[in-house]
Design goal:
The structure is a homodimer. By secondary structure, chain A is an alpha/beta fold. Chain A is built from 22 helices and 19 strands. Chain A has an 8-stranded mixed beta sheet, sandwiched between helices. A 6-stranded mixed beta sheet of chain A has the order 1-2-4-7-9-11, with helices on both faces. The longest helix of chain A is centred in the first third of the chain and has 25 residues. Chain A starts with 16 loop residues before the first strand and ends in a 14-residue tail after the last helix. The mean pLDDT of chain A is about 95.
Chain lengths: ~550, ~550
């Protein structure tokens, strides 16, 4: 698996999905090309999926939000005759490294959360119409939608057969959504998750696993009716609005660098660090929402969000040995604040709303990136408002007091905007500042009072907004020591520590999925019963039963 | 590690702790005998601990609640000169099996939660007086107390050096309590957890890691003053009340069975099942609280709770291959309800209060036991009130309709009492019935309306209180199939699945510790960077640096 995994795609290039938009209701049809797996060595039979299939799904979900403001309901269905979706491809999983398995699951979980975010925040509801078997990840996909209709035809079923078949968990949110979203009774959930063949018809409704079981003859009509009902609950702009095209990213890939229009990543392989430099806006925000819409994918906040998102995915999947991400920025902080103010002023415009929610998701993607994150806030930087949020997402931040010798740029400042105090909640439901100041909520208010001001390093440190303010005498040494120290620690230990320290405060279904469910799944992915040579993943389909160590831990 | 681990002890037998009770304030002094480890192969230097040390601590915490109603504040301190506690013994960890590490951590976490439970619910507050280094588990112990005083002497410090030294997490609640109880700022927490030597004095206060840093000369006085302040907040009965002695358990251990006064465990090694049979009360509850107090440890609910607790720990640590626990009961359900009514009526008596909270903790211990749990509710059983709660803690429950041929006992019934609706919350803060019926809260009310009634199998199934009601024709086959099926699954997959399905609904600090923190720690305990031959645990103290795989997952 040394080929570079590409996260950019577009509907014309889809191999596995068909997206049909007609008025308020779109159809998103899963029709996996079994001959087009992401890697060699397996076929995507029975509408099973791998990361390649999910990259297309994530792209479709994203385009539906930006390119189709008229779409109020998305009907998710299968393009195959007798199967809805067989879930994640088992041979792919069996042949994958631990790291690929973990990152594959994380991405699929983010995509499912994205579906729920579209429904909760963009008025784009999802309906799942299941004909045939929806097993494992197939049913988990259904679980991410607002309403599940199951054909009551003696054949169609929902199932989470991971435990009996593969000795792993339904880890794409499956267990958590069954108990916390569908709120199935725990003993019935237990029964459900141990029945390979799954559950059908009326029992699936009774166990709260689907919303409706409908006879085949009435299925199409029921789907239509349910779609119309969901559409009626949507605050999506509808018919008149026109979307903005998510045009291909400007991107140049070199051996140790990726350069976008306003992001650059430089990778130092010797030290295993990547420096992500963000370029502030080159011009002030447009005067009107109409101009923002005309700029479309070129509108700086949207362009940057897309580029940053691509960077994060690229680093996660293609640069596994990079242990530390260093965030830097360059530009005019007042311009960044001007963009924030523009978006805040236009937040009722559907496109501004989409951009805000997209930034929220990109920032969550940072929170969930299992690399050490550090912000270096230096002269010439523009960590203001939305960009300051990146510094708050970091495990540590260093800010230079004054300037380095010979540098005659203005000393670094940090600035807050209204967007730091609400629109970008973390997975735990709190803003980064509220999470940061859990023990001293008055500090959030104190920071809020400084909104819009250019805070120098000492003030930012005093307000608790950066970890350390350093003068030019100490800067190089302190930063170097931190980076070297970080490189000396165990990669796994850091992953576990950061996954705990980043999410103080309340838990939500989302944090439960990434904390509890994912952590247990990662553990199981390491255990011989699943992943060993005689384990269930390796032995699946060979006709030889897996050999299990019965010890309970 | 094939010797049986014994969880019963008493102060006269302590090797590692001294308990001094004088009036309202007790001193619990950690003074580990380095020559008395639980297993061979390591010495407990620097007040480090192993499971044996923690078993004594758990015993002391428990006795303080039952035997010392006069104690309002417990001062936790070290009996060594220059060290408070160096945490879990590293050689012990390095030499332990994965299963022992996991179960050791679980037990220590339960003990720390028990300390917090005493403070929150029994008015028995804990104060930690740190002189010397409190590192790793030593600081985690401090974190479990209400107030931490640190000597400001240039030497005393608090530290969580697990990541830098050992490539593992501060897994005994450490990370979670730093962020969620102490509410330390995440970047400072990150800095703290990466500094081997820890943090001292004023900085420890500023970072919210301790409550007070006090000069050596004033330390004793400050501890006294803080203890008096805490005592003033306590609703503990105080001076007049006399405790009840937790006398040694009646217990007979045989090769495949352990028999107590009202619990019997039979282990079938071929099928890897243990049957836990609970005996209901032999006589009605006493007439007065005074008589309950006179019965003391013989009072049936207390006796049963202690025996059941011992069973759970024995099975976890000494019977690792037992995959399924089958709970049965025998006795008169009306007697069980009478005891529940007696306790509910006397819940303001300190002893009844202790017993209720103890049952809560025992039931939590069941929830957290990583074995499949099933209740078989048969004629002659007494799953009523508190005992019904055990069935609700199970992954599945089967209830027989009518009787087996030739059995002329009354058919099985299930009954609810007031104790099913409040006093026994799970770690998630909800009752088991509220968790069970998360999706249909009206079912809790429906069940409540049936309080006190003897519900037959079909009614119990209809009310959703048992998984399956079966008649005598199907009983044997269905139960057998379930048990065989369970045995065929991967032990790890079951552990992960059950840890997810049992805890629907909200999360608390406690569930975060057992879900997020523990699951990540277990993952790390499997990773070569920590546990491999070249990993940090194995290489610690050898002078050879650990060799790490830098891949980030």
């Amino acid at each position: 698996m040394t080929q570079r995994i590409e996260f950019q795609t577009q509907p014309e290039r889809y191999r596995h999905w068909k997206l049909r938009c007609e008025g308020e209701v779109a159809e998103l049809i899963m029709d996996v090309d079994e001959a087009a797996p992401l890697f060699e060595g397996y076929q995507l039979k029975l509408n099973s999926y791998d990361l390649g299939v999910d990259i297309e799904l994530a792209d479709a979900v994203q385009r539906l939000r930006f390119e189709h403001p008229e779409v109020k309901v998305v009907v998710l269905k299968s393009g195959k005759e007798r199967v809805f979706c067989a879930g994640a491809n088992i041979r792919m999983l069996a042949g994958s490294t631990h790291a690929h398995k973990v990152n594959f699951c994380k991405f699929t979980n983010e995509t499912r959360n994205g579906i729920e975010d579209a429904s909760a925040n963009s008025g784009q509801k999802y309906l799942c119409a299941i004909r045939g078997t929806a097993a494992g990840g197939g049913y988990e996909l259904a679980l991410a939608t607002d309403r599940i209709l199951l054909a009551d035809d003696g054949n169609s079923s929902v199932a989470l057969p991971e435990l009996p078949l593969l000795a792993v968990l339904p880890g794409t949110g499956g267990l958590t959504r069954v108990t916390d979203k569908r709120k199935a009774r725990r003993d019935l959930a237990d029964a459900f998750c141990t029945v390979e063949e799954g559950v059908k018809g009326a029992r699936a409704v009774k166990w709260r696993l689907v919303d409706q079981a409908v006879a085949n003859s009435k299925f199409e009509a029921a789907v239509k009716e349910a779609a119309a009902k969901l559409a009626a609950t949507s605050d999506r702009p509808g018919g008149d609005a026109r979307g903005v095209a998510l045009t291909p990213l400007e991107r140049k890939i070199e051996a140790d660098a990726v350069t976008y229009s306003c992001v650059k990543v430089e990778i130092d392989r010797a030290t295993r660090r990547a420096t992500v430099t963000i370029q502030g806006p080159g011009e002030p925000p447009p005067a009107t929402a109409q101009t923002m819409w005309e700029q479309g994918a070129q509108f700086w906040p949207l362009r940057l969000a897309r580029e940053l998102d691509d960077v994060l995915l690229h680093l996660r999947l293609n640069e596994g040995e990079t242990g530390v991400l260093i965030f830097k920025s360059q530009g005019d902080p007042t311009q960044v604040l001007a963009y924030d103010a523009f978006i805040a002023a236009n937040k009722d415009h559907w496109l501004a709303r989409e951009i805000l929610h997209y930034w929220k998701r990109v920032l969550k993607r940072i929170d969930l990136t299992s690399r050490s994150l550090v912000a270096l806030i230096e002269p010439g930087s523009c960590f203001a408002g939305t960009l300051a949020e990146i510094a708050f997402a970091c495990d540590r931040s260093f800010m230079l007091i004054g300037a380095q010798k010979g540098d005659n740029r203005q000393p670094a400042t940090l600035a807050l905007s209204a967007l730091n105090f609400g629109p970008y909640p973390m997975s735990n439901g709190l803003t980064r500042l509220a999470t940061r100041f859990l023990g001293e909520p008055e500090s959030v208010e104190k920071a809020k009072a400084e909104t819009g001001k250019a805070l120098d390093a000492e003030t930012a440190e005093e307000l608790g907004l950066v970890t350390t303010a350093l003068d030019s005498v100490d800067w190089d040494d302190e930063v170097r020591i931190f980076l070297e120290e970080r490189s000396s620690f165990s990669a796994d230990g850091l992953t576990g520590m950061e996954a705990n320290l980043r999410f103080a405060g309340p838990e939500t279904m989302e944090t439960k999925i990434f904390g509890r469910l994912t952590a247990w799944q990662n553990w199981i992915f390491q255990r011989p019963n699943a992943a060993g040579a005689e384990g269930a993943l390796k032995r699946y389909g060979t006709g030889v039963k897996a050999s299990f160590n019965p010890e309970r831990v």
